[in-house]
Amino acid sequence: MVKCIGVLTSGGDAPGMNAAVRAVARTCLNKGIEVYGVKLGYKGLHDGDFIKFDRHSTRNIINIGGTILKSARFPEFKDPEVRKEAIAKMKEVGIEALVVIGGDGSYHGALELTKMGVNCIGIPGTIDNDIPDTDRTIGFDTALNTIVDALDKLRDTSSSHQRCTILEVMGRRCGDLAINAGIADGAEMVITSEIGYDEKKVIEVLKAAKQSDKNHAIVVITEHITDVHELAKKVEAATGFETRANVLGHMQRGGRPSARDRVLASRMGVYAVELLEAGKGGLCVSYVHGEIVGKEITEVLGHKRKTDFSIYEDAIKLR
Ligand code: ADP
Ligand code: F6P
């Protein structure tokens, strides 16, 4: 029976991570399991940057964005020797198992540690929604609402000036934020790496929009596809639509977590501790058709997340 658990947040932060930390900490304490917060992700694990949690440690954080544990990217953790040093630090205070809240990179770290004898459970904490085998990741809903809020504001000025507005959003290799925000705000076009980027097609669609009775147009595009400021110039020159580009950036990662993210994070945090209590490791927590379930990290990391394009294809007909 596990007696002491650590919890860390790693990779890009996501609104709702604190609610997950709180759920892990309080579930442990309710079960009589000691619990430590690990600062700065795997870096803090390696450096022994631990805080022993009591009931008060996670007070008033369920509604706060970011992560009270701080997050970091620590590529050194790929080195087995660095992981051995981290395990030695955990042993010094008696941490036997770990809950890792983060994205797919963080899952790799959790899997490697499990292989070295430390049971780890991953919780999907990333705004990108890019983890396979879970319908939602913690932070996605809040980030999506932040983008929709920004698009609503851009729509006002875009409409007033009869302009085309291009908004670049986060999502690295996953277009879920762009697709869902595009649908929610009635965008003229959504461009993601999965949908594909064809500059001629973009110009064609916007030219047609300009020639129709459309007063303005909104394009939502995922980051790392093209330089949106250059694209705006090309669109303006080719279509006659005065065009402005905006990059929303890290604004999408902050803010008060939505109710959905808080609930998801709370449920996942409880379940992660139950898995560790049952002696499980190398698993991650997923949300599938409304249920919280455990999945093998190896399987989850073994395939690409499928984006549901049908929702976009249906919505685009509503333009
Ligand atoms: P995310 O978890 O959001 O995908 P990263 O890809 O930056 O973010 O990964 C977070 C951290 O997980 C990395 O900085 C590193 O410490 C750890 N990590 C990533 N890949 C591995 C790996 N193959 N082995 C061990 N640790 C890893
Ligand atoms: O993975 C979350 C994420 O916000 C991505 O959408 C984005 O590409 C990346 O992190 C940005 O990372 P950083 O904060 O290190 O610039």
Task: Walk me through what this model shows.
- With 319 residues, the chain is an alpha/beta fold.
- The chain contains 11 helices and 11 strands.
- The strands form 2 sheets. The chain has a 7-stranded mixed β-sheet, sandwiched between helices. The chain has a 4-stranded parallel β-sheet with strand order 7-8-6-9, with helices on both faces.
- The protein binds adenosine-5'-diphosphate (ADP) and 6-O-phosphono-beta-D-fructofuranose.
- The site of 6-O-phosphono-beta-D-fructofuranose has 10 residues, from loops.
Portion in beta strands: 15-25%
- Structural class call reads alpha/beta
N-end to C-end Cα span: 57 Å
Cα-atom Rg, whole angstroms?
A: 22 Å
Apparent shape: elongated
Order of helices and strands: EHEHEHEHEHEHEHEHEHEEHH
Helix content: 40-55%
- Enumerate how many helices there are, as a single number: 11
Q: Mean of residue pLDDT? A: 95
- For the largest beta sheet, what order do the strands appear in spatially? 3-2-1-4-5-10-11
The small-molecule ligands in this entry are: adenosine-5'-diphosphate, 6-O-phosphono-beta-D-fructofuranose
